[in-house]
User: What shape does this take?
Amino acid sequence: MKKDHPSERGHIVAIGGGGFAADPPNLAIDRYLLSLARRARPNVGFLATATGDLPGYVARFLAVYAGLGCRPSALPLFTHTPDVAGWVRSQDVIFVGGGNTRSMLAVWREWGLPDLLREAHAAGTVLAGQSAGAICWFEQGVTDSWAGPLRPLDCLRFLPGSCCPHYDGEAERKPAYRGFVEGGTLTAGVAIDDGAAVHYMGGERARVLAWRENAGAWQVASAPGGVREERLEPEWLEPVTPDWPVG
Assistant: This one.
């Protein structure tokens, strides 16, 4: 096993976009995450750092997950932050929201979260997230953290290679990612559509999942004369519509 990569028993689920934050919400991937937890009524923590702990975003997560038979909470890093290590260690699943990945990682490092998340992952905590919360686990990712064109970003290195979310959901994503990989700015990696996710176990791809028609994921690598793009066929997750208020 490579030194930078966590324990073989660890789960990481990288989501291209969608889930509880979508409008209307489809909770198929959220239910899937709970199925990976170590107990029937897991503690599920939300990190909304990439939006500066946007109150509406946090409230929506808590409302949705409260209806899924778990114990949700959020870790504030901008107002009255509790014991960070204690919070991380108490979670069975940690979900990372979207937003500004570069700023999120900078704040996490200030609070010592990368090491705490690595420790939790090795102990069996499921790590997951969408957009910023997907790319953060890889060596590198494509981000809109800066105004203007998309840029590459070095990330946490829990997973090998690079990642691009919203591959079919934002028009600039595909050409930017392909260009970065072809030019060698980014290593080969995975591109994930909105409505799709990739589940890793022990640093290796285990399953590709989709809950939106035609969504999936792609392995993208440089090749002589350009880029090779291989579709990774997904397993279908039946849509789940909440029957309780989500805000």
Q: What stands out?
A: The first strand starts at residue 11 and ends at 15. DSSP finds seven helices and 14 strands in the chain. Confidence is low (pLDDT under 50) at residues 1-8. The CA atoms of residues 141 and 226 lie 19 Å apart.
